[in-house]
């Protein structure tokens, strides 16, 4: 990702976060916090490059890992679309501009965070593969990405159903240890695999699209 692309992404997030702080209130006020939390791992990913010392890289990588689930977590916020009461009496979608505005508020940050988050996972996996000397491991980059997505899916469950934010891991870790130990069940694992599979699907499509674009350029 180029320097210009990074700053464009930052500008998009900063603009929406500022707008949310000033203008989005009521039922959708959660967008300010959730979008900010989703932006943190995006920003951290910009610093996880080969220019970082080994110590700084792994410190930032751990912090990124703790905050990254906030990006796919936004997908679960889409259930709040039910608050829009979108259907008219005849069963058709209403043509209500205020409703479609709120729709954009919910879907926009989710799409950006999922796409850029997927990119950040792939780039981090590539750098981890290089630093761990796993370049000869078949599919090592994809394997590391898969494991990161699995961790993220567990994080989405923790955030959505235990209502624990990533910041708690840094300020009050003792508060959540018991809950993390007791949360495991078949139902929980089923949810995790659903979110994991969804992330993998997005990742595969993203990699396929990227490969197709490179092929087109090379021609």
From TrEMBL:
InterPro entries: DUF1361. The keyword Endoplasmic reticulum does not apply. Keywords: Membrane, Transmembrane, Transmembrane helix. This is DUF1361 domain-containing protein. The chain crosses the membrane at residues 12-34, 55-75, 103-121, 142-164, 184-206. It comes from the Bacteria.
């Amino acid at each position: 990702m180029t320097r210009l692309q990074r700053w464009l992404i930052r500008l998009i997030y900063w603009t929406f976060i500022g707008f949310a702080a000033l203008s989005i209130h009521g039922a959708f006020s959660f967008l300010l916090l959730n979008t900010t939390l989703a932006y943190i791992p995006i920003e951290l990913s910009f610093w996880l490059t080969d220019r970082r010392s080994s110590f700084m890289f792994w410190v930032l990588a751990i912090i990124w890992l703790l905050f990254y689930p906030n990006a796919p977590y936004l997908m679960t916020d889409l259930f709040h679309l039910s608050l829009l009461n979108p259907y008219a009496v005849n069963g058709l979608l209403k043509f209500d501009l205020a409703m479609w505005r709120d729709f954009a508020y919910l879907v926009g940050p989710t799409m950006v965070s999922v796409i850029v988050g997927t990119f950040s996972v792939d780039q981090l996996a590539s750098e981890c593969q290089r630093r761990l000397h796993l370049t000869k491991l078949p599919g090592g980059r994809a394997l590391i990405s898969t494991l990161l997505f699995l961790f993220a899916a567990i994080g989405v469950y923790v955030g959505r159903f235990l209502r624990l934010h990533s910041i708690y891991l840094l300020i009050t870790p003792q508060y959540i240890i018991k809950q993390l130990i007791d949360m495991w069940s078949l139902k929980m694992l089923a949810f995790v695999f659903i979110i994991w599979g969804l992330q993998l699907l997005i990742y595969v499509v993203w990699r396929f699209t990227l490969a197709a674009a490179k092929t087109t350029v090379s021609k």
